Protein backbone atom coordinates (compact mmCIF):
# COMPACT_ATOMS: atom_id res chain seq x y z
CA UNK A 1 0.00 0.00 0.00
CA UNK A 2 2.69 2.47 1.07
CA UNK A 3 4.69 1.47 -1.97
CA UNK A 4 2.01 2.55 -4.42
CA UNK A 5 1.43 5.81 -2.55
CA UNK A 6 5.11 6.55 -2.86
CA UNK A 7 4.96 5.78 -6.54
CA UNK A 8 2.16 8.26 -7.10
CA UNK A 9 3.93 10.89 -5.06
CA UNK A 10 7.02 10.59 -7.23
CA UNK A 11 4.96 10.50 -10.36
CA UNK A 12 3.15 13.73 -9.57
CA UNK A 13 6.29 15.80 -9.93
CA UNK A 14 7.25 14.15 -13.20
CA UNK A 15 6.19 14.30 -16.80
CA UNK A 16 2.79 12.92 -17.88
CA UNK A 17 4.60 9.94 -19.35
CA UNK A 18 5.73 8.87 -15.89
CA UNK A 19 2.10 8.89 -14.76
CA UNK A 20 1.32 6.23 -17.30
CA UNK A 21 3.67 3.88 -15.49
CA UNK A 22 1.68 4.24 -12.27
CA UNK A 23 0.15 0.96 -11.07
CA UNK A 24 -3.31 0.36 -12.47
CA UNK A 25 -6.26 -1.58 -11.19
CA UNK A 26 -6.43 -5.22 -12.26
CA UNK A 27 -9.25 -6.20 -14.63
CA UNK A 28 -12.53 -7.10 -12.89
CA UNK A 29 -13.78 -10.70 -12.78
CA UNK A 30 -14.70 -11.73 -16.33
CA UNK A 31 -18.35 -12.05 -15.29
CA UNK A 32 -18.52 -8.32 -14.66
CA UNK A 33 -16.68 -7.43 -17.86
CA UNK A 34 -19.09 -9.66 -19.80
CA UNK A 35 -22.22 -8.26 -18.16
CA UNK A 36 -21.09 -4.67 -18.58
CA UNK A 37 -20.29 -4.91 -22.29
CA UNK A 38 -22.32 -7.73 -23.86
CA UNK A 39 -25.20 -5.52 -24.94
CA UNK A 40 -22.88 -3.01 -26.61
CA UNK A 41 -20.96 -5.79 -28.34
CA UNK A 42 -24.15 -7.40 -29.67
CA UNK A 43 -25.41 -4.01 -30.87
CA UNK A 44 -22.20 -3.31 -32.73
CA UNK A 45 -22.14 -6.78 -34.30
CA UNK A 46 -25.75 -6.47 -35.46
CA UNK A 47 -24.97 -3.12 -37.00
CA UNK A 48 -21.97 -4.58 -38.84
CA UNK A 49 -23.25 -8.05 -39.74
CA UNK A 50 -27.03 -8.27 -39.37
CA UNK A 51 -29.02 -10.15 -36.76
CA UNK A 52 -28.23 -13.72 -37.82
CA UNK A 53 -24.47 -13.47 -38.32
CA UNK A 54 -24.15 -11.36 -35.19
CA UNK A 55 -25.05 -14.32 -32.98
CA UNK A 56 -22.11 -16.39 -34.08
CA UNK A 57 -19.76 -13.41 -34.02
CA UNK A 58 -20.94 -12.74 -30.46
CA UNK A 59 -19.66 -16.16 -29.35
CA UNK A 60 -16.38 -15.62 -31.17
CA UNK A 61 -15.88 -12.14 -29.72
CA UNK A 62 -16.29 -13.17 -26.11
CA UNK A 63 -14.32 -16.40 -26.53
CA UNK A 64 -11.44 -14.33 -27.95
CA UNK A 65 -11.78 -11.87 -25.09
CA UNK A 66 -11.81 -14.69 -22.55
CA UNK A 67 -8.72 -16.19 -24.09
CA UNK A 68 -6.84 -12.90 -23.88
CA UNK A 69 -8.26 -11.90 -20.50
CA UNK A 70 -5.64 -13.40 -18.21
CA UNK A 71 -2.95 -11.46 -20.06
CA UNK A 72 -4.81 -8.17 -19.57
CA UNK A 73 -2.92 -6.01 -17.08
CA UNK A 74 -5.29 -3.07 -16.69
CA UNK A 75 -8.96 -2.22 -16.30
CA UNK A 76 -8.96 0.84 -18.55
CA UNK A 77 -11.27 1.27 -21.51
CA UNK A 78 -12.59 -2.26 -21.40
CA UNK A 79 -15.60 -1.16 -23.47
CA UNK A 80 -13.27 0.01 -26.23
CA UNK A 81 -11.25 -3.19 -25.95
CA UNK A 82 -14.40 -5.35 -26.29
CA UNK A 83 -15.63 -3.35 -29.27
CA UNK A 84 -12.23 -3.59 -30.97
CA UNK A 85 -12.37 -7.38 -30.73
CA UNK A 86 -15.96 -7.35 -32.03
CA UNK A 87 -14.98 -5.23 -35.05
CA UNK A 88 -12.06 -7.55 -35.83
CA UNK A 89 -14.38 -10.55 -35.67
CA UNK A 90 -16.85 -8.79 -37.97
CA UNK A 91 -14.08 -7.92 -40.43
CA UNK A 92 -12.95 -11.55 -40.44
CA UNK A 93 -16.52 -12.67 -41.15
CA UNK A 94 -16.77 -10.25 -44.05
CA UNK A 95 -13.52 -11.60 -45.46
CA UNK A 96 -14.75 -15.17 -45.14
CA UNK A 97 -18.05 -14.32 -46.83
CA UNK A 98 -16.13 -12.94 -49.77
CA UNK A 99 -13.89 -15.98 -49.96
CA UNK A 100 -15.03 -19.38 -51.20
CA UNK A 101 -17.96 -21.16 -49.56
CA UNK A 102 -17.34 -23.37 -46.54
CA UNK A 103 -15.87 -26.76 -47.30
CA UNK A 104 -18.02 -29.75 -46.39
CA UNK A 105 -17.59 -30.81 -42.83
CA UNK A 106 -17.75 -34.15 -41.10
CA UNK A 107 -21.17 -34.78 -39.62
CA UNK A 108 -22.64 -37.07 -37.05
CA UNK A 109 -25.71 -38.99 -38.15
CA UNK A 110 -27.49 -37.97 -34.99
CA UNK A 111 -26.42 -35.05 -32.89
CA UNK A 112 -26.48 -36.08 -29.26
CA UNK A 113 -27.20 -33.51 -26.60
CA UNK A 114 -24.07 -31.76 -25.47
CA UNK A 115 -23.94 -33.42 -22.08
CA UNK A 116 -24.00 -36.82 -23.70
CA UNK A 117 -21.49 -35.68 -26.28
CA UNK A 118 -19.21 -34.40 -23.55
CA UNK A 119 -19.17 -37.86 -22.00
CA UNK A 120 -18.73 -39.63 -25.32
CA UNK A 121 -15.84 -37.37 -26.24
CA UNK A 122 -14.29 -37.64 -22.79
CA UNK A 123 -11.46 -39.89 -23.93
CA UNK A 124 -10.38 -37.68 -26.84
CA UNK A 125 -7.27 -35.48 -26.61
CA UNK A 126 -8.12 -32.09 -25.08
CA UNK A 127 -8.21 -29.99 -28.25
CA UNK A 128 -10.16 -32.55 -30.24
CA UNK A 129 -12.66 -32.98 -27.42
CA UNK A 130 -13.22 -29.25 -27.14
CA UNK A 131 -13.56 -28.88 -30.92
CA UNK A 132 -16.07 -31.76 -31.16
CA UNK A 133 -18.16 -30.57 -28.21
CA UNK A 134 -18.22 -26.93 -29.34
CA UNK A 135 -19.05 -27.83 -32.93
CA UNK A 136 -21.64 -30.55 -32.43
CA UNK A 137 -22.82 -29.76 -28.91
CA UNK A 138 -23.02 -25.98 -29.09
CA UNK A 139 -23.17 -25.50 -32.84
CA UNK A 140 -20.35 -22.95 -32.81
CA UNK A 141 -18.64 -21.94 -36.05
CA UNK A 142 -15.08 -23.07 -36.68
CA UNK A 143 -13.98 -19.46 -36.41
CA UNK A 144 -15.44 -19.24 -32.90
CA UNK A 145 -13.92 -22.61 -31.97
CA UNK A 146 -10.55 -21.40 -33.27
CA UNK A 147 -10.93 -18.37 -31.01
CA UNK A 148 -11.69 -20.61 -28.05
CA UNK A 149 -8.73 -22.89 -28.71
CA UNK A 150 -6.31 -20.13 -29.58
CA UNK A 151 -5.76 -21.54 -33.05
CA UNK A 152 -7.00 -20.88 -36.58
CA UNK A 153 -10.35 -21.70 -38.10
CA UNK A 154 -8.59 -24.31 -40.24
CA UNK A 155 -6.93 -25.93 -37.21
CA UNK A 156 -10.29 -26.02 -35.40
CA UNK A 157 -11.93 -27.73 -38.40
CA UNK A 158 -9.07 -30.22 -38.48
CA UNK A 159 -9.33 -30.96 -34.75
CA UNK A 160 -13.11 -31.56 -34.97
CA UNK A 161 -12.69 -33.78 -38.00
CA UNK A 162 -9.90 -35.86 -36.43
CA UNK A 163 -11.92 -36.09 -33.21
CA UNK A 164 -15.03 -37.32 -35.01
CA UNK A 165 -13.04 -39.93 -36.90
CA UNK A 166 -11.47 -41.11 -33.65
CA UNK A 167 -14.91 -41.23 -31.99
CA UNK A 168 -16.35 -43.26 -34.84
CA UNK A 169 -13.50 -45.76 -34.63
CA UNK A 170 -13.93 -46.09 -30.88
CA UNK A 171 -17.68 -46.66 -31.19
CA UNK A 172 -17.36 -49.41 -33.81
CA UNK B 1 -29.53 -4.35 -27.27
CA UNK B 2 -30.77 -7.20 -25.10
CA UNK B 3 -28.85 -10.43 -25.24
CA UNK B 4 -31.34 -13.32 -25.37
CA UNK B 5 -31.10 -15.95 -22.62
CA UNK B 6 -30.33 -18.63 -25.24
CA UNK B 7 -27.43 -16.68 -26.73
CA UNK B 8 -26.13 -15.87 -23.28
CA UNK B 9 -26.33 -19.47 -22.09
CA UNK B 10 -24.64 -20.76 -25.22
CA UNK B 11 -21.64 -18.52 -24.62
CA UNK B 12 -21.36 -19.41 -20.93
CA UNK B 13 -21.50 -23.14 -21.56
CA UNK B 14 -19.17 -22.97 -24.56
CA UNK B 15 -16.63 -21.01 -22.50
CA UNK B 16 -16.73 -23.73 -19.85
CA UNK B 17 -16.60 -26.58 -22.40
CA UNK B 18 -13.58 -24.95 -24.05
CA UNK B 19 -11.74 -25.07 -20.73
CA UNK B 20 -11.22 -21.30 -20.69
CA UNK B 21 -12.49 -20.57 -17.17
CA UNK B 22 -10.51 -20.23 -13.96
CA UNK B 23 -13.77 -20.53 -12.01
CA UNK B 24 -17.34 -21.45 -12.97
CA UNK B 25 -20.08 -20.68 -10.46
CA UNK B 26 -23.83 -20.76 -10.16
CA UNK B 27 -26.55 -20.35 -7.58
CA UNK B 28 -28.55 -23.32 -6.38
CA UNK B 29 -31.55 -23.61 -4.05
CA UNK B 30 -31.39 -25.67 -0.89
CA UNK B 31 -33.53 -26.14 2.24
CA UNK B 32 -31.05 -23.90 4.11
CA UNK B 33 -31.20 -21.10 1.57
CA UNK B 34 -29.70 -20.23 -1.80
CA UNK B 35 -26.10 -21.37 -2.13
CA UNK B 36 -23.39 -20.07 -4.40
CA UNK B 37 -21.34 -23.00 -5.69
CA UNK B 38 -18.02 -22.57 -7.52
CA UNK B 39 -15.62 -25.00 -9.20
CA UNK B 40 -12.22 -24.86 -10.88
CA UNK B 41 -10.72 -27.45 -13.22
CA UNK B 42 -9.37 -29.16 -10.08
CA UNK B 43 -12.68 -29.44 -8.26
CA UNK B 44 -15.19 -27.75 -5.99
CA UNK B 45 -13.61 -24.60 -4.54
CA UNK B 46 -16.43 -22.67 -2.83
CA UNK B 47 -19.87 -23.01 -1.30
CA UNK B 48 -21.23 -19.77 0.09
CA UNK B 49 -24.33 -19.19 2.21
CA UNK B 50 -24.28 -15.53 1.36
CA UNK B 51 -24.48 -15.62 -2.40
CA UNK B 52 -23.74 -11.96 -3.02
CA UNK B 53 -22.41 -12.52 -6.55
CA UNK B 54 -20.38 -9.30 -6.90
CA UNK B 55 -18.43 -9.78 -3.72
CA UNK B 56 -17.99 -13.49 -4.38
CA UNK B 57 -16.70 -13.09 -7.93
CA UNK B 58 -14.12 -10.57 -6.71
CA UNK B 59 -12.97 -12.96 -4.03
CA UNK B 60 -12.86 -15.92 -6.43
CA UNK B 61 -10.92 -13.88 -8.99
CA UNK B 62 -8.30 -12.95 -6.39
CA UNK B 63 -7.91 -16.56 -5.28
CA UNK B 64 -8.05 -18.42 -8.60
CA UNK B 65 -7.77 -16.00 -11.54
CA UNK B 66 -9.90 -13.35 -13.22
CA UNK B 67 -11.70 -15.64 -15.66
CA UNK B 68 -14.69 -16.18 -13.38
CA UNK B 69 -18.01 -16.80 -15.13
CA UNK B 70 -21.45 -17.98 -14.12
CA UNK B 71 -22.10 -21.28 -15.94
CA UNK B 72 -24.40 -24.10 -14.88
CA UNK B 73 -22.68 -27.03 -16.63
CA UNK B 74 -19.54 -27.40 -14.52
CA UNK B 75 -21.36 -27.25 -11.19
CA UNK B 76 -24.07 -29.75 -12.20
CA UNK B 77 -22.46 -32.74 -10.41
CA UNK B 78 -22.22 -30.68 -7.20
CA UNK B 79 -25.83 -29.54 -7.50
CA UNK B 80 -26.95 -33.13 -7.98
CA UNK B 81 -25.04 -34.44 -4.97
CA UNK B 82 -26.27 -31.58 -2.77
CA UNK B 83 -29.86 -32.33 -3.78
CA UNK B 84 -29.36 -35.99 -2.91
CA UNK B 85 -27.79 -35.04 0.42
CA UNK B 86 -30.67 -32.75 1.39
CA UNK B 87 -33.15 -35.45 0.31
CA UNK B 88 -31.42 -37.88 2.67
CA UNK B 89 -30.32 -40.09 -0.19
CA UNK B 90 -26.59 -39.35 0.10
CA UNK B 91 -24.38 -39.80 3.14
CA UNK B 92 -21.04 -39.13 1.50
CA UNK B 93 -19.97 -36.67 -1.18
CA UNK B 94 -17.89 -37.90 -4.06
CA UNK B 95 -16.39 -34.66 -5.29
CA UNK B 96 -12.85 -33.46 -5.88
CA UNK B 97 -12.10 -30.29 -3.92
CA UNK B 98 -9.67 -27.48 -4.71
CA UNK B 99 -8.10 -26.17 -1.50
CA UNK B 100 -5.32 -24.19 -3.22
CA UNK B 101 -6.39 -20.95 -1.58
CA UNK B 102 -6.19 -22.37 1.95
CA UNK B 103 -3.04 -22.11 4.10
CA UNK B 104 -1.20 -25.42 4.81
CA UNK B 105 -2.53 -25.81 8.37
CA UNK B 106 -6.10 -25.08 7.24
CA UNK B 107 -5.78 -27.52 4.38
CA UNK B 108 -4.54 -30.24 6.71
CA UNK B 109 -7.39 -29.63 9.18
CA UNK B 110 -10.00 -29.50 6.38
CA UNK B 111 -8.75 -32.83 4.97
CA UNK B 112 -9.13 -34.41 8.40
CA UNK B 113 -12.54 -32.80 8.76
CA UNK B 114 -13.63 -34.43 5.49
CA UNK B 115 -13.28 -37.83 7.16
CA UNK B 116 -15.80 -37.13 9.95
CA UNK B 117 -18.75 -39.29 8.87
CA UNK B 118 -22.38 -38.34 8.30
CA UNK B 119 -24.42 -38.58 11.50
CA UNK B 120 -21.41 -38.19 13.82
CA UNK B 121 -19.83 -35.20 15.53
CA UNK B 122 -16.34 -34.41 16.71
CA UNK B 123 -14.84 -31.55 18.73
CA UNK B 124 -12.48 -28.69 17.94
CA UNK B 125 -9.97 -30.16 20.37
CA UNK B 126 -10.14 -33.63 18.82
CA UNK B 127 -9.49 -32.18 15.36
CA UNK B 128 -6.56 -30.18 16.73
CA UNK B 129 -5.08 -33.33 18.26
CA UNK B 130 -5.58 -35.23 15.02
CA UNK B 131 -3.69 -32.47 13.20
CA UNK B 132 -0.79 -32.89 15.64
CA UNK B 133 -1.44 -29.52 17.34
CA UNK B 134 -3.28 -30.39 20.58
CA UNK B 135 -3.10 -26.77 21.78
CA UNK B 136 -4.68 -25.39 18.60
CA UNK B 137 -8.42 -25.89 19.28
CA UNK B 138 -9.03 -22.15 18.81
CA UNK B 139 -7.11 -22.10 15.54
CA UNK B 140 -9.20 -25.06 14.40
CA UNK B 141 -12.28 -23.01 15.28
CA UNK B 142 -11.03 -20.24 13.01
CA UNK B 143 -10.41 -22.73 10.19
CA UNK B 144 -13.98 -24.04 10.60
CA UNK B 145 -15.35 -20.49 10.57
CA UNK B 146 -13.55 -19.76 7.28
CA UNK B 147 -14.20 -23.17 5.71
CA UNK B 148 -14.46 -22.39 1.97
CA UNK B 149 -16.60 -25.47 1.25
CA UNK B 150 -19.14 -25.91 4.06
CA UNK B 151 -21.63 -28.83 3.94
CA UNK B 152 -19.30 -30.89 1.71
CA UNK B 153 -16.42 -30.35 4.16
CA UNK B 154 -18.65 -30.90 7.20
CA UNK B 155 -17.64 -28.22 9.70
CA UNK B 156 -21.21 -28.44 11.03
CA UNK B 157 -20.12 -31.77 12.60
CA UNK B 158 -17.60 -30.02 14.86
CA UNK B 159 -18.94 -28.99 18.28
CA UNK B 160 -17.59 -27.87 21.65
CA UNK B 161 -16.11 -30.34 24.15
CA UNK B 162 -19.13 -29.67 26.41
CA UNK B 163 -21.58 -30.61 23.63
CA UNK B 164 -22.65 -27.08 22.73
CA UNK B 165 -22.85 -26.13 19.07
CA UNK B 166 -20.47 -23.14 19.64
CA UNK B 167 -20.72 -21.40 16.25
CA UNK B 168 -21.10 -21.71 12.50
CA UNK B 169 -19.95 -19.54 9.60
CA UNK B 170 -23.43 -19.78 8.08
CA UNK B 171 -25.23 -19.11 11.38
CA UNK B 172 -26.11 -21.54 14.18
CA UNK B 173 -29.60 -22.18 12.78
CA UNK B 174 -28.09 -23.76 9.71
CA UNK B 175 -25.73 -25.89 11.78
CA UNK B 176 -28.69 -27.16 13.76
CA UNK B 177 -30.67 -27.90 10.57
CA UNK B 178 -27.79 -29.88 9.08
CA UNK B 179 -27.17 -31.92 12.23
CA UNK B 180 -30.89 -32.62 12.53
CA UNK B 181 -30.99 -33.76 8.90
CA UNK B 182 -28.15 -36.15 9.66
CA UNK B 183 -29.82 -37.39 12.86
CA UNK B 184 -26.86 -36.20 14.94
CA UNK B 185 -28.55 -33.71 17.25
CA UNK B 186 -28.78 -36.33 20.03
CA UNK B 187 -25.02 -36.10 20.37
CA UNK B 188 -25.23 -32.42 21.28
CA UNK B 189 -26.62 -30.49 24.22
CA UNK B 190 -29.72 -29.47 22.25
Protein model, in words:
In chain A, 71% of the residues lie in helices and 0% in strands. Chain A is built from nine helices and no strands. Chain A has two domains: 24-98, Rna Polymerase Sigma Factor, Chain: A (Orthogonal Bundle), CATH 1.10.1740.10; 114-171, Winged helix-like DNA-binding domain superfamily/Winged helix DNA-binding domain (Arc Repressor Mutant, subunit A, Orthogonal Bundle). The longest helix of chain A has 21 residues, at 78-98. In chain A, 38% of the residues are buried. Chain A has 172 residues and is an all-alpha fold. Chain A has helices at residues 2-12, 16-20, 30-49, 51-69, 78-98, 114-120, 126-137, 142-149, 153-171. Chain B folds into two domains: 5-86, Methylated DNA-protein cysteine methyltransferase domain (Double Stranded RNA Binding Domain, 2-Layer Sandwich), CATH 3.30.160; 104-187, Winged helix-like DNA-binding domain superfamily/Winged helix DNA-binding domain (Arc Repressor Mutant, subunit A, Orthogonal Bundle), CATH 1.10.10.10. Chain B contains seven helices and six strands; from the N terminus they run H-E-E-E-H-E-H-H-E-H-H-E-H. In chain B, strand 1 and strand 2 (35-40) form a beta hairpin. At the A-B interface, helix 3, helix 4, helix 6, helix 7 and helix 8 of A face helix 1, helix 2 and strand 4 of B.
Q: Which range does the strand content of chain A fall in?
A: under 5%
Q: Please tell me how large the radius of gyration of chain B is.
A: 17 Å
Give the biggest beta sheet of chain B.
4 strands, mixed
C-alpha termini separation of chain B: 56 Å
| CATH topology label of the largest domain in chain B | Arc Repressor Mutant, subunit A
- Residue runs with pLDDT of under 50 for 5 or more positions of chain A: 1-21
Secondary-structure map:
The complex is a heterodimer of chains A (172) and B (190).
Chain A: H1 2-12, H2 16-20, H3 30-49, H4 51-69, H5 78-98, H6 114-120, H7 126-137, H8 142-149, H9 153-171
Helix pairs in contact in A: 3-4, 3-5, 4-5, 4-8, 6-7, 7-8, 7-9, 8-9
Chain B: H1 5-17, E1 23-28, E2 35-40, E3 43-48, H2 53-64, E4 68-70, H3 72-86, H4 104-113, E5 122-123, H5 124-130, H6 137-145, E6 158-159, H7 172-181
Parallel strand pairs in B: 1-4, 5-6
Antiparallel strand pairs in B: 1-2, 2-3
Helix pairs in contact in B: 5-6
Amino acid sequence: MSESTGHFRRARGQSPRALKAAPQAAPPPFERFYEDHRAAVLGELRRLLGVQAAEDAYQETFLRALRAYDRLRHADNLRAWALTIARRVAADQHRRRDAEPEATEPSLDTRPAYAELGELAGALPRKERAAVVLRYGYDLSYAAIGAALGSSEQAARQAASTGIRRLRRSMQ
Amino acid sequence: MTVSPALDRRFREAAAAAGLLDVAYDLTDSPIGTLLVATTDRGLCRISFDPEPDRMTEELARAFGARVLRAAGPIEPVRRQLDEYFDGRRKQFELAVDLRSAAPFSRDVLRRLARVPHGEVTTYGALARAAGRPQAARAVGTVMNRNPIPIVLPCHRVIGANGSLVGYGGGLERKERLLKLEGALDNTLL
